[in-house]
């Protein structure tokens, strides 16, 4: 899973938004996840403050920040056996609503969605296509 990289001299999403704004998006994102009937059950008994900190680090990575250990993210979701594509879609919708609430422009919201989408197979416990092909990406 690769973070967003600079293309044609364009700044990364992280460079445009900054870490503080990403943290605000994550806070709003968890508000939606905790109140959404499709996603809230997955957060029962979880230390939400800790999870938000980890999510911020992860999103910073995805949006052009420093590398992180992806094995931890994959193993953290293993316990969520009932997690489906529909749940992932609901989480993605919540992320987009949070970014919109924080007045992130549409073109950047689309880029955030693309960056987050690459995590789908890892979160759902499926073998990502790049691993099936034997790539060391």
From TrEMBL:
UniProt-listed Pfam families: Bac_globin
Record keyword Chaperone present: no
Record-given protein name: Globin-like protein
Keyword Thylakoid: no
Origin superkingdom: Eukaryota
GO molecular function, one term: metal ion binding
Keyword set, alphabetical order: Heme, Iron, Metal-binding, Transport
Originating organism: Basidiobolus meristosporus CBS 931.73
